[in-house]
């Protein structure tokens, strides 16, 4: 029994007419009759009986009909599954979890699939993947950078902190309460904004990533300069900074050689065209 015979049987069973079933399948009546006879010979049973007003179904046909429907649905689903795989564009994306908030990652994923609907994302950790989602500050020297998100740094303080108001001049604050992230590429730039003795900051609580730094603030251990999205945590208040506020840019990092790959080229071109 093949797909052609299943379709022929279902059409005749539902139409109760060789003429209407043939028109539905876009084949000739003789061809449909031959197909039904072949199926009956294969099953060694009679499925239809010709009558003056059409085709009468036998008990064997009534038993076969629901099974034939299930078989046809399964075959269609199987074919669709492989067609979908054939047209999808797999893309492995390394994600720098230390710099990127969950809301930002979700926004980037929506934007990627929106730009290239056939994309099939595989999220990986860190530097793995064909493309890397990271901050511009952590971009490697041999990598190109396509910015996707941009946000300011803010002053993140524990909810219990008495500091209030906006337009804070960070250089005037008590340095003994600062939390730092010395391993982060943007650390030196932030130290310049603080304008203080770096030796004093060595005695403060420290973290390896900006995400971890936010949790230290939420624990009530001090203040920190954080990208706005990473300061959205229970136990944290944020205050706007005064003057030239540093920016936290998130985007896709990739080498020039990767740009020539099909999926990377399509993603980059679609994102650049969309602005």
UniProtKB/TrEMBL annotation:
Q: Where is the HTH lysR-type domain?
A: 1-58
Keyword Transcription regulation assigned to the entry: answer is yes
For this UniProt record, give its keywords in alphabetical order, as a comma-separated list.
Activator, DNA-binding, Transcription, Transcription regulation
Q: Which GO terms describe its molecular function?
A: DNA binding; DNA-binding transcription factor activity
Top-level division of the source organism's lineage: Bacteria
Q: Which family does it belong to?
A: Belongs to the LysR transcriptional regulatory family.
Official protein name in the record: LysR family transcriptional regulator
